[in-house]
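Moderator note: this is an archived Q&A kept for reference. The question asked for a predicted structure of one protein chain; the sequence and the answer are reproduced below.
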Amino acid sequence: MQLPFISVILPVRNEEKYIEACVASIFKQDYPAELMEVIFVDGCSQDRTVALLEEMKKTYPQIVVLHNPNKTVPYAMNIGIRACKYDVIIRLDAHAEYPEDYFRLSVETLLTKDCDNAGGVFETRGRGFMGEAIAEMLKTPLGVGNATYRLTQEDGYVDTVPFGCWRKELFDRIGGFDERMTRNQDNELNHRIRKTGGKVYLNHNIRVLYYCRDTIKGICRMGYMNGKWNVITMTLVPGSMGVRHFVPLAFVVSTIGLLLLTLLTRSMLFGGLLALEWGAYLLLDFFYSYQIAKEKGVKFFPVEVILYPAFHFAYGFGSLVGIANLPKFLKAERDKKKTGKENA
């Protein structure tokens, strides 16, 4: 198969810690460098991200650096899509590294399968002991639910994939990224693809080496923001999020609810239900923590036991905050539309 020219787009912001390794993996691809442009869209970085990219342009003239004043990923993607020169687009994340066959497999999958988006599987990596512990948690079903793109070893049609590879004409047909989506923009885009009759294909041989947060504070903040934006995304785009995205919310609400009912009524029924719920949760927590410790070392066990509930409670609490903030968020969206119409 003759390989086409491709445009590679990366939204970046404050990625000096990861950007050099990411660029190195891009230019170690077995895809011919002369057939690609690599567009970095910077969201007002306050570190050395842009300076490092400008320096690397001297070695890799395929690099293009654009400015994203709105900072968030969907704006960056739309800026990159409008600027790109070629008909096949690959989206990457600077927080990751890519095996040398990533571009080739992505393009071949897109062009040989009946699909509108081709993607692969996350291989979560961590840096340092805590980063490694967090990565191990995120590799388990208890950590990520039934997220196919993290757990699967099979190919096939799925609801969503991380990042993606598309033909540019797709965006002419269904529109660009939804700029309301500070998070979950991939889920929303793939939902729109499927809603308009398209297909999303996962090739498990396409691997993304993704570096997770490496502190408890960092992973809890990520969980909190994910939980918050899951609620907002589901409200704005019904059907775009799965049931698994709201399991932490149900866990937190049921824990708080049963605890309050137990204290207010002093009923053994509610206390028993609370004990049953937490007994089952802790059983799973200890089981998966033990499995990780058996493979990685005993020092991982106490850390994993703490990580699971910390992450899940941050995630569920984020969803609660998302529900509480919905009226304010929806009002702001209505005001934006009103202002846009008045300025049109």
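Archived answer notes: The CA atoms of residues 290 and 301 lie 6 Å apart.
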